[in-house]
Amino acid sequence: MEKLKLALIGCGYLNEIVANAWKDGYLPEYELVAVLGRNYDRANVFADNYRCKACVDINELMGMKPDFVAEAASVKSIQDYSETILNGGSNLVVLSIGAFADQEFYERVKNTAALNNHRVYIASGAVGGFDILRTAALMSPITASISSQKAPGSLYYTPLYKEGLLDITKREQVFSGTTKEAIAILPTHVNVAVATALASAGPEKTIMNIDAVPGFQGDEYKIEIEGEEVRTELNIYSRTSKVAAWSVVSVLQNAVAPIVF
């Protein structure tokens, strides 16, 4: 059986996990053919390690005729490349879901995928439970919220940081608003919130609260959904960002599996 061609956007820590999973036999239906990164020298090192091609731009990547392109790079890469990828004949796996907080862009990408008979797969990243979220939203109008705990230091280079935050001794709320507002302030920190919102009530109707917690490590999210028929709470803790990369591996497995979970 001919293998599906897989290309990667981003040559950092997360896509190294995806590439290693492929190398270790977790994705036997795929052939890793290409990688694109912001730094071509770094992409070259990545390509040498995994015996694929380092590309200088998206057009060279699409010239490799990938069946799937998996992104673990940035919101901007999704904004810049999504339509080119879909028009070029590939399916797209997305980690930087924050790009889809822009409803107009989201609809444009969805329409482009439909016109080309291809799919955009949203990886769960550090959260999960999309199945019950979507089911609840189909059954009746719902309210949705997501709460996040973060280490004060993780907010240091963000607009949410304020003087003295590193010295707090108890939990302190640093943000409350919609997920669309959150992604505008923290474009690289709350992709999981946008994914949750897209699977449930929508980015403009899903409330997000972020607390800084002294001594905390990792990421923790609490998702609450309530409708006429279904009420659920999901609590997810991840010590590192590895779970995001493995969620891409899971999506790629499901895309070709005879039984889908």
UniProtKB/TrEMBL annotation:
Keyword NADP in annotation: yes
* Note, other: The iminoaspartate product is unstable in aqueous solution and can decompose to oxaloacetate and ammonia.
What is a GO molecular function of this protein? aspartate dehydrogenase [NAD(P)+] activity
Its biological function? Specifically catalyzes the NAD or NADP-dependent dehydrogenation of L-aspartate to iminoaspartate.
The UniProt entry's GO biological process terms, in alphabetical order, are: NAD+ biosynthetic process
User: What region holds the Aspartate/homoserine dehydrogenase NAD-binding domain?
Assistant: 10-122
Q: Which SUPFAM superfamilies match?
A: Glyceraldehyde-3-phosphate dehydrogenase-like, C-terminal domain, NAD(P)-binding Rossmann-fold domains
State what protein this is by name: L-aspartate dehydrogenase
Query: How would you classify this enzyme at the top EC level?
Result: oxidoreductase
Record-annotated residues binding NAD(+)? 126, 191
Protein family (similarity comment): Belongs to the L-aspartate dehydrogenase family.
* Keywords, comma-separated and alphabetical: NAD, NADP, Oxidoreductase, Pyridine nucleotide biosynthesis
Q: What InterPro entries does the entry give?
A: Asp/hSer_DH_NAD-bd (IPR005106), Asp_DH (IPR002811), Asp_DH_prok (IPR020626), L-Asp_DH (IPR011182), NAD(P)-bd_dom_sf (IPR036291)
Pathway listed? Cofactor biosynthesis; NAD(+) biosynthesis; iminoaspartate from L-aspartate (dehydrogenase route): step 1/1
Residue span, Aspartate dehydrogenase domain: 168-248
Q: What is its EC number?
A: 1.4.1.21
Catalytic reaction(s) noted: L-aspartate + NADP(+) + H2O = oxaloacetate + NH4(+) + NADPH + H(+); L-aspartate + NAD(+) + H2O = oxaloacetate + NH4(+) + NADH + H(+)
Upper classification of the source organism reads: Bacteria, Bacillati, Bacillota, Clostridia, Lachnospirales
The protein's matches in Gene3D superfamilies, at most eight in alphabetical order, are given as: Dihydrodipicolinate Reductase, domain 2, NAD(P)-binding Rossmann-like Domain
